[in-house]
Give the backbone structure.
Amino acid sequence: MNDAQTAERLVEAARDAAANAWAPYSNFSVGAALLMADGSIVTGANVENSSYGLSLCAETVAVAKASADGRMRDVVAVGVVGGMTGEHGVEPILPCGRCRQILNEAAQAGKRDLKVWCSGLTGGPIAEYTLSDLLPHAFGPANLGIA
């Protein structure tokens, strides 16, 4: 499978996940899909909370699911989509700063740079990045003396 096919596959899985977002406060649904080393996909959707600080981003949910299954080191790429629920959102949505750091933990655990494909909730172009493009000079395990 080439990069374009992989990007489409991850973005579609992220859109499917976004349909399950719990976003009653912002109406901004986000879905994330992690490509694992064996070709499987782990998804997550944002979960809002009335105590706003307790809300979880889609990427964080997906990484937590992968970690809970003992697969933190297996993440090789991520697809992210998002937008206002019920609107035609086609602009690519990028991971927030916190999610970039969460994704960095998975990337460093697996000793790889992650490809990150981003798109809008209901379609539009797919933007391609690497995690190191989005989070240069990242803080990680090596900064704590853990390689």
Q: What stands out?
A: The mean pLDDT is 95. Residues 3-18 form the longest helix (16 residues).
